[in-house]
Design a protein that fits this description.
The complex is a heterodimer of chains A (193) and B (153).
Chain A: H1 8-20, H2 26-50, H3 59-103, H4 106-111, H5 114-156, H6 164-179, E1 184-185, E2 188-189
Helix pairs in contact in A: 1-5, 2-3, 2-5, 3-5, 3-6, 5-6
Chain B: E1 10-17, E2 26-36, E3 46-50, E4 53-56, E5 58-59, E6 65-73, E7 80-88, H1 89-100, E8 112-118, H2 129-152
Antiparallel strand pairs in B: 1-2, 2-6, 3-4, 3-7, 5-6, 7-8
């Protein structure tokens, strides 16, 4: 799916832009929000079965809490992914270029200019790093979120009224997950777009 | 020992029952109470009857404090309310007589009675599941965190 043709200049700029922007493609967005929704829905089971917070009675609370936490968790996914993507790309660069060069046949090798080869490698590296950073971000954030939910709800807030639980656990977790990630990039705090 | 009888007893009971069956061999019930009598009697000899078993009631260090305890195997210690009847000398001897003659035991009126609520003893795994879940979660998070640090290094 490497871009070819006369608009080589443009595609390279596009690639670079894409590389450095925080914007997500539609597919990534769908992946993130879908995952965030599922992960946010998990604690509902906890609240319902273990602390006997009835589904119907607290339906509004559950719905609001799930939506807010979905948004916050997806936000954390985006941030972590962005922070990690460059590092991952750096690490994978050698492997990707080896594989791309290997895949090109002899004839192609002579025909293509250095520039086009580099462009292909850059594209492939971007794609690989994107995917790896996405999946790792989802894994990392899910783990952090669930651990925080368990700790906060079973140990920290044990003595409070059960209605308080969803609100506070979810909000604090998602928030913590994000703060952790609104990260120190070269010393400063990064401001989300 | 002077055995006095008590009129118009006023009691302040407190009870303890075994709640964890994993670490104990039998379920233990303890009833402590402070007894105040209208006639000021202070060392009353009391006897307790629980579900047909009789136990002596010991006097505590402080005046007016009494304690009785009994144990039974976990299997027999079902959860629920146990009624502990307290008899003084007179009523206790009539109770024993009724027992010997196989008469109706329940017709003997106790001096007072205390209800003990036994919630049942926990017989589950050693470590609570939420602790296990938290520990496993932390372990997995630690793996994720170290992977992230490796990437960012």
């Amino acid at each position: 799916m490497a871009p070819k043709g006369s608009s080589k200049q443009q595609s390279e700029e596009d690639l670079l832009l894409q590389d450095f922007s925080r914007n997500l493609s539609a597919k990534s967005s769908a992946l993130f929000y879908g995952n965030a929704l599922i992960v946010s829905a998990i604690p509902i089971w906890l609240f319902w079965r273990i602390w006997h917070m009835d589904l119907v009675q607290s339906a509004i609370l559950y719905a609001v809490m799930t939506l807010v936490s979905t948004y916050l968790v997806a936000f954390a996914y985006k941030n972590v992914k962005f922070v990690l993507k460059h590092k991952v790309a750096q690490k994978r660069e050698d492997a990707v270029s080896k594989e791309v060069t290997r895949k090109l046949s002899e004839a192609d090798n002579r025909k293509m200019s250095r520039k086009e080869k580099d462009e292909r490698i850059l594209w492939k590296k971007n794609e690989v790093a994107d995917y790896e950073a996405t999946t790792f971000s989802i894994f990392y954030n899910n783990t952090l979120f669930l651990v925080l939910v368990i700790i906060a709800s079973f140990f920290l807030l044990k003595n409070f009224n059960p209605t308080v639980y969803p609100l506070s656990t979810i909000m604090s977790n998602a928030y913590l997950g994000n703060i952790w990630v609104l990260n120190k990039v070269e010393g400063g705090w990064m401001v989300p777009n | 020992t002077n055995c006095e009888s008590c009129t118009d007893p006023v009691i302040t009971p407190s009870a303890y029952t075994t709640s964890d069956a994993v670490i104990s061999s039998e379920s233990v019930f303890i009833v402590e109470l402070s007894l105040a009598c209208a006639n000021g009697a202070q060392s009353v000899a009391l006897y307790a009857d629980v579900n047909g078993r009789q136990f002596p009631v010991t006097r505590g260090q402080d005046v007016g404090k009494y304690q009785v305890s009994w144990s039974m195997p976990h299997k027999q210690a079902s959860s629920g309310t146990y009624q502990v009847k307290f008899f003084d000398e007179e009523s206790y001897s009539s109770l024993r007589k009724a027992q010997r003659n196989n008469e109706d035991v329940d017709s003997i009126q106790p001096l007072f009675s205390v209800n003990v609520d036994h919630r049942g003893a926990w017989n589950g795994p050693w470590v609570a599941t939420e602790v296990m879940a938290a520990l496993i979660g932390i372990l997995v998070y630690y793996l994720a965190f170290s992977a992230k640090s490796t990437i960012q290094a």
